[in-house]
From TrEMBL:
Pfam families: B_lectin (PF01453), PAN_2 (PF08276), PK_Tyr_Ser-Thr (PF07714), S_locus_glycop (PF00954). The keyword Ribosomal protein does not apply. Signal peptide: none annotated. GO terms for biological process: recognition of pollen. SUPFAM superfamilies: alpha-D-mannose-specific plant lectins, Protein kinase-like (PK-like). Residues 554-719 form the Protein kinase domain. The chain crosses the membrane at residues 39-65, 480-502. It comes from the Eukaryota. This is Receptor-like serine/threonine-protein kinase. Keywords: ATP-binding, Cell membrane, Disulfide bond, EGF-like domain, Glycoprotein, Kinase, Lectin, Membrane, Nucleotide-binding, Receptor, Serine/threonine-protein kinase, Signal, Transferase, Transmembrane, Transmembrane helix. Residues 64-187 form the Bulb-type lectin domain. It is an enzyme of class 2 (transferase).
Length: 719
């Protein structure tokens, strides 16, 4: 029969690698120093014993023999897990040879990063140490120069037929080979590091506890002064102790996280399993990705750190630590108080509802150690008392609290109300809102968080209850204000969207058909005032093709001038009639309103000193007015031209002035529309062939009511 152990010595002089193969799917590596007679004898002994059983996965299997011990590794050797993430061996700090330890570390990280130390309180004094199995099957650490073992698993075994396994999780286990029962494991005895699948908690039946303890110093793994554990007394909670005194409190489990760890979420890479039953209360963290290396450490100064290994940058990335804030220290503000680190303008400590500082003088001096006391101590039992809600807090120390996970929050309030000793209550599960936790006596270590936390209902007397009721009725709550703001913004956006859609639809309709110019755009006079002259519907509508052909496609040579709202071109219709086309610029300030205004006004007005409109053209974004052609253009072309100025003698000038005056008199008085031009200037006075003046450009004109003598304008217009 072939032995399940196969040893192959490689050709390298140092170190020597021995592959122990027990099945085709697993290779356990044992890295050793160069062979010597003692090692070879031990290997032969292991080979002999190994022929009687098979090694478990990721394990080195040996059997103890009466009156002897079999070494697993010696100083200088390493036992590596099958995934090569962890290694077991001897180490020291600062290359010391007088303080040697046995431990487990991350094998793939260049810098020594420990996860567990066996003989943390009793180091070896030289390099002759050995990790071995004694004749009872227990693991022990000893040195040939020392008469007693420095560390032992000290487990009770029914058989010495055991295997030592270094699992891929970093757990060193002593397993009974036949029953495959774990007799002892390093995960049950953490040092200062908690890695995935380690447990923290308490076995309620045996009292055995899984907890972290700090080192004494960075280079001394001996048991330090800080420990982190779950306190099962009252309602179980996570507590960090300095000696036996609470240093920081993680609080009770809320159904999704520790009450004092607001950063803890299920959406991260951590899988959390929390157990609270008659057998035990414990928490175990796993990882969603097996390749992620993650750890939580308790350092010698009393701080917890959680970090992940960044393989690319070759460093640990810390994403959480505690305690960090002033309010994190246990009972920072004394009993019956609430620590609010976000209350920067005032003292961070404030009394809970119904309480006042024990010493106002000390409170003024920012010494909150005395805490708070009841304002009216004898008024909270059968005197109309009630409860005030304190939002987003880490609930008080629950070591004296009582819990009933089958009770609703309403029933919890009634139960607390009936018991005069009950000082506060909350829901046990913040996810479902179910379960009941009640407090009796002083409320210790309450603090506020910015965005998360539980609601704590504090018992107050009738006077205090009335005061808080008035405050809540007089001012909208913090939850109502955001709702109102969101609703208002949504309403504004809805109205704006409707207006925008209406404008788009309106513009689309205007583009699809020529507008009807039956209205006016000033203060509306009565309909009777529009019976003067032609109506806008009487005006002929020119086709765009006709206008383009008449102006030779708006040829520059036909351009007569340019006003504030567009250029004016000379044109000639097919019947030989000459026209002037005012083409509204697409980017001009005159919009559809001014265009309609000008068409409406000129169509209604008939006077020999007003320019005569022949028609209009509207096509897509093009808007044009067709006037009678006046060959002498505008008055300014005569006034400001040296050669033409001589044609205007004083008699001619007087006639032009009188003509303009007659036109203005008609607009202001004789016309029933009563129009104010608002843009009268030399460039808007056109001259016909006989130099008779005609007022033009009514885009800025405004209609007045019959009896109206003044009006206000909303914008500055004209020249």
């Amino acid at each position: 029969m072939q032995s399940p152990f196969q040893f192959s010595l490689n050709s390298h002089p140092s170190p020597l690698m021995i592959n122990i193969v027990n099945n085709p799917f697993f290779t356990q590596k044992l890295i050793m120093n160069p062979p010597n007679p003692t090692v070879l004898i031990s290997l032969l002994l292991v080979t002999f014993v190994g022929s009687f059983f098979t090694v478990a996965t990721a394990a080195v299997a040996v059997a103890a023999i009466d009156n002897s011990s079999i070494h697993i590794i010696k100083d200088g050797d390493r036992l590596v897990s099958s995934n090569e993430n962890f290694a077991l061996g001897f180490f020291s700090f600062n290359n010391s040879t007088t303080r040697r330890y046995v431990g487990i570390w991350y094998n793939t990280i260049p810098q020594l990063t420990l996860v567990w130390v066996a003989n943390r309180n009793q180091p070896l004094i030289d390099t002759s140490g050995t990790l071995a199995l004694d004749r009872h099957g227990n693991l022990l650490v000893y040195s040939h120069t020392q008469t007693i073992s420095l560390w032992s698993t000290n487990a009770t075994l029914r058989s010495n037929d055991v295997s030592v396994q270094l699992w891929n999780t970093g757990n060193l286990a002593l397993v009974e080979r036949q029953s495959r029962k774990v007799i002892w494991q390093s995960f049950d005895y953490p040092s200062d590091v908690l890695i995935p699948y380690m447990k923290m908690g308490v076995n309620r039946r045996t009292g055995f506890s899984w907890f972290l303890t700090s080192w004494k110093a960075q280079d001394d793994p001996a048991t330090g002064n800080f420990s982190c554990r779950i306190n099962p007394t009252g309602y179980p909670q996570l507590v960090l102790y300095q000696g036996d005194v609470p240093w920081w409190r993680g609080g009770p489990w809320t159904g999704r996280r520790w009450a004092g760890v607001p950063e803890m979420t299920r959406s991260f890479i951590i899988n959390t399993s929390y157990i609270d039953n008659a057998e035990e209360v414990s928490i175990t963290n796993g990882v969603t990705v097996d390749t992620v290396l993650m750890r939580m450490t308790l350092d010698e100064s009393g701080s917890l750190h959680r970090s992940t290994w960044n393989e690319q940058d070759q460093k640990w990335n810390e994403f959480w630590s505690a305690p960090t804030e002033w309010c994190d220290k246990y009972s920072r503000c004394g009993p019956n108080s609430n620590c609010d680190p976000y209350n920067t303008e005032q003292f961070q400590c404030k009394c809970l509802p119904g309480f006042e500082p024990r010493s106002n003088h000390n409170w003024f001096l920012r010494d909150p150690s005395g805490g708070c006391i009841r304002k009216r101590p004898n008024a909270t039992c059968g005197s109309g008392e009630g409860f005030v809600k304190v939002e987003r807090v880490k609930v008080p120390d629950s070591s004296t609290a009582r819990a009933d996970k089958s009770m609703s929050l309403e029933a919890c309030e009634q139960a607390c109300m009936k018991d005069c000793k009950c000082t506060a209550y909350t829901s046990a599960n913040e996810t479902t809102g179910f379960g009941c936790v009640t407090w009796y006596g002083d409320l210790l270590d309450t603090r506020t968080y910015a965005n998360v936390g539980q609601d704590l209902y504090v018992r107050v007397d009738a006077v205090e209850l009335a005061q808080y009721s008035q405050k809540s009725n007089g001012h909208p709550s913090k939850k109502v204000i955001p709702i109102v703001v969101v609703c208002f913004v949504a309403l504004v956006l809805l109205v704006a969207s409707l207006v925008y859609l209406w404008e788009l639809l309106k513009k689309r309709r205007e583009r699809e058909r020529p507008p009807s110019f039956s209205g006016n755009f000033g203060d509306p006079p009565s309909t009777k005032e529009f019976d003067e002259g032609r109506t806008s519907s009487d005006l002929p509508v020119f086709d765009l093709v006709t206008i383009v052909k008449a102006t030779d496609n708006f040829c520059f040579n036909n351009k007569l001038g340019e006003g504030g709202f567009g250029a004016v071109y000379k044109g000639k219709l097919t019947n030989g009639e000459e026209i002037a086309v005012k083409r509204l610029a697409k980017n001009s300030g005159q919009g559809v309103g001014e265009f309609k205004n000008e068409v409406t006004l000129i169509a209604k007005l008939q006077h020999r000193n007003l320019v005569r409109i022949l028609g209009y053209c509207v096509k897509n974004k093009e808007k044009m007015l067709v006037y009678e052609y006046l060959p002498n253009k505008s008055l300014d072309s005569f006034i400001f031209d040296e050669s033409k100025r001589a044609l205007l003698n004083w008699r001619r000038r007087f006639e032009i002035i009188c003509g303009v005056a007659r036109g203005m008199l008609y607009l202001h008085q004789d016309s029933r529309l009563k129009i104010i031009h608002r843009d009268l200037k030399a460039s808007n006075i056109l001259l016909d062939a006989n130099l008779n003046p005609k007022i033009a450009d009514f885009g800025m004109a405004r209609i007045f009511g019959q009896d109206q003598i003044q009006a206000n304008t909303n914008r500055i217009v004209g020249t």
